[in-house]
Amino acid sequence: MRFLENFLRNFLDINLNYLYFLQNVKSITNRVFKIMKKQGIKQIVSKRHMPASKSFYSARKIPPKLYRIGEIVQYSGLSRQTIHNYTTMGLITEVCRSSGGHRLYDETVFARLDLIEQLKRRNKSMREIRKYFDEMDKGR
Is the pLDDT of residue 46 over 50? Predict the structure, then answer.
């Protein structure tokens, strides 16, 4: 019985100490954000979580990430043939081709693929989806 009492006391002490630690971290984080706001710093983002097309407080411009069709298949879950069909239909466009002749797509292709899937879930035909994208692209 005594062992259980000691165990529970120690367990509760550890958890209370952890809660105090979390409260301190939260207050320190809030203070840092207030100081950043006063100094005009908008946001801190780690390079790992930034989009590839934006530079991170750097004078040089970072080239945008271009994806081959295999990477698009891997990240989107669609088949290679579906990506090829969407390209030939004009729903998505390749930015350029590599020296080896591979189609290269930019990051916007993922938003367009998501939009195509949403429209398909709403029972839109491929013809209607293509008209939608044609109108959307004219507005640019």
Answer: no
Which CATH code, of 1.20.58.410, 1.10.1660.10, 3.30.413.10, 2.40.440.10, is assigned to 67-138? 1.10.1660.10
User: Would you say 36 and 44 are in contact if contact means Cβ atoms under 8 Å apart?
Assistant: yes
**Helix 108-121 and helix 126-138, axial crossing angle in degrees, nearest 10:** 140
**Look-up of token digits 């080239």:** 63
Q: Which two tokens stand for residue 20?
A: 């105090």
- Whether this prediction's pTM lies above 0.85 is answered by no
Q: Where are the alpha helices (DSSP H) in 40-125?
A: 69-76, 80-89, 108-121
Please give the average per-residue pLDDT across 116-135, as a whole number. 92
- Give Cα 50 to chain centroid, integer Å: 8
- Say if residue 47's pLDDT is above 60: no
